[in-house]
Amino acid sequence: MTDTDSSPQDTTGAAHDPVLVRRIQGAERQVARLQRTVMWLGIGVAVLLGLASAIIYLASQHGMPGMVASVLESKQFLLRGSDGQVRGTWGTDQDGAVRLVLQGGANSAGVTLNLLADGSAGVTLSDLAGNSRLVIGLIPNENVSMVLADGSGVTRAVFGLGAEGSTSLVFADQHGTTKAAIGVDATGAAILAAGEPQTADTTD
Question: How far apart are CA 96 and CA 111, in angstroms?
């Protein structure tokens, strides 16, 4: 019986196989290229998102052509100051009237524009206390009037122009009682009145 020498197989040859080495190196290069490509794609997406955010911000602050709606619909708009207080309103009511109100900051002074459903139009100027001091109106029958009131809200003077051509100017005292009037009627005749209103004498 003879002994046979057995030695471990040499496996280092496969590790130094030139073909296998080139394949491994090629795969490593492809992985590196893919990593660089993914990195640049991520950078590009981040840049695009930043540009889109900047455009949206600028459009919201200043408006940009093509990004502003040509029609904006609402039943009411509110205008607020830097302190958050409402400084103006613009809207319609259930009766079909359109109203624009502009108000002062720390007081009730304001300007009001009204257009009613029947076509009547008016402008009102209010003082610091919110009292109407000047009212200009035009009604559908084409009569125009301008009313002036004092700080208590009492009408003190009225200037009117009738549709038929008459004009009138009426003055009142601090109680709102008419004291004098002047005008021209539709025929061109002058009208002048002064003093206390005439009352009927009911004594016997």
Answer: 20
The residue assigned the tokens 């109407």 is 132
Q: H or E element: which one contains 23? A: helix 18-62
Please name which of 140, 135, 145 lies closest in space to residue 183, comparing C-alpha atoms.
Answer: 145
Q: Among 4-13, 21-30, 141-150, whose mean pLDDT is lowest?
A: 4-13
Q: What is the pLDDT of residues 174-191, one digit of tens each?
A: 999 999 999 999 899 998
Structural fold of domain 76-194: Outer Surface Protein A; domain 3 (3.90.930)
Three-state SS at 54: helix
Tokens of 51: 């540009």
Checking if the pLDDT of 169 tops 90, the result is yes
- Dihedral-angle region of residue 107 (phi above 0 means left; psi in -120 to 50 means alpha; beta otherwise): beta
0.70 exceeded by pTM? no
pLDDT band at 202 (very low <50, low <70, confident <90, very high): very low
Tell me the one-letter amino acid at 166: S
Instruction: Compute CA distances 108 → 6, 130, 134, 181, 189, whole Å.
Output: 112, 5, 15, 32, 43
Residue (of 187, 63, 81, 142) closest to 55 by Cα position: 63
